[in-house]
Amino acid sequence: MSNMDPRTLRIRVENISTIPTIPSVLKQLSAIIEHPKISLNEISHFVSQDPALTTKVLQMVNSALYGFPGRISSVNHAVMLLGLNVVKGLLLSVSVFEIMHKAMIGLREHSIGVAVASKVLARKKGLKEPEEVFVAGLLHDVGKVILTLVWPEEYDRTVKEAEASGIAIFEAERSRFSETHAAVAGWLAEKWHFPRKLCECIANHHRPQISSLAPLETALVHAADVLVKARGIGYSGDSLVPEVNPGAWETLALGEADLREVLKELEDSVEQTAEEFRA
User: Which domains does the chain show, CATH number per domain?
Assistant: First the structure.
């Protein structure tokens, strides 16, 4: 399989609920959040029907990543505190974390690392909604999971090819699939009715320079991705540590002290959070 037509790829990806290998909870969740007018109550009701999902959401909200350790006891409370987009992102994350781990050992830890670093950087830059950037960090590589589920053998070959040739995973994806995991994740974020800024952060995390609606947020997720790779947290499909895009670096205007602080917070919370999700 080489250079699949991008439209064919997109249609297949957007119809994930018809793909046999997609776990049922992700299919149900996808079907629910595709409704543009989904309410907080409907989301709460859906989660509350599934004890495993309820446990995972509460576990995440009460983890070190949020400022509410041990204080949130119900899904309703979590939804009201965090808002619809963040809760949708958390639900998608917890429902793909398990398959993420099977799809690529270390991808879950990498994604948690990027989420943490994105949120810390967003706070440093004074963003009003650091949680939404956190969600973009959590979901930025979900396209790799989808590609693995839909085309397991081809994607495995793509990862091996990237490693053997010393190229970035997205370059190997482009030559085999005609598009990258970032585009796939962006299509899904649109289908799931995430805000356009959030979709842009996810779709452009390797090319922050083309981001028009959310240049700062996209630069944050991009830099967080590079930082986490450089720190060796988890595994994202290749061992290359790319340079931070110069324009993104200029946009962020971070000093050495800022970076030290981000790395310190990363070390502290990633291990703890990854532990919680292994449970």
Answer: 6-278 (1.10.3210.10)
